[in-house]
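Researcher: We're reviewing a set of sequences before deciding which ones to prioritize for further study. For each one, I'd like a predicted 3D structure that I can look through quickly. This is Alpha/beta hydrolase. If possible, include the structure in token form so it fits the rest of the review sheet.
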Amino acid sequence: MLSRRASAVLVPAALLALAAPAVAQVPSIRNIVLVHGAWVDASGWKPVYELLTRRGFRVTMVQEPETAFEADVAAARRVLDMQDGPAILVGHSYGGSVITQAGVHPKVAGLVYVAAHAPDVGEDEGALGRRMPSVLARTEGAVRMTPDGYTYLDPELFPRLFAPDLPRERAEFAARCQVFAKAEVFSTPLTAAAWKTKPSWGIVAGNDQIINPGLERFYYERARAPFIVIEGASHSVYESHPVQVAAVIEEAARKVQERMP
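Model: Here's the predicted structure for Alpha/beta hydrolase, in token form for your review sheet.
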């Protein structure tokens, strides 16, 4: 069972299982859908993808265009439509807003929030972030905007703010291949909140500079979602701590399966 707080040594049995070289058995809930956050694409999920597929899960990643919140939700729904059974829907960062809206899809059996936003109906993550500012919000000039209204993180600051626990060359590469996000995606109010009706789990990145870790805790506590804290982890926790992230996703799939008739 996930605790409310954990260090880098998390969910020992699940971690040992993920380290096993072969698939032990095909899980009953085998579909996992991963949704990335703003300014990055789905390629960062590769370490988590590899761990889960080795455990017998069928993993699909959503590539959001980041041109409009509605378009990103539609991209997630498109992938959910393709699943051959119930799925665990996972969102990182801004992807948490996307899964909160898209998670009412009938094939979604559970939600996992990874250093993510989880607004309620009528809320938007931009306003919530201003109530509990992050290091990013207090860093002048960190978020840049193109003349046509797309945001990106200053590439010189990206390694320090977004991914300080990744190898420097990997962080610099991510900084230079950003997906620019339309500014409005952060201020679009939600019209659905799947965490109200779907079982949910959360991961707090203890050294998150992009979202205040306290805000992540607020979201998960409000959703009554069991969560762990990975101390020292950056916003890139899904890439820097893939074993712990994959273990939470696997536990969510197991718990949801146990609740099914």
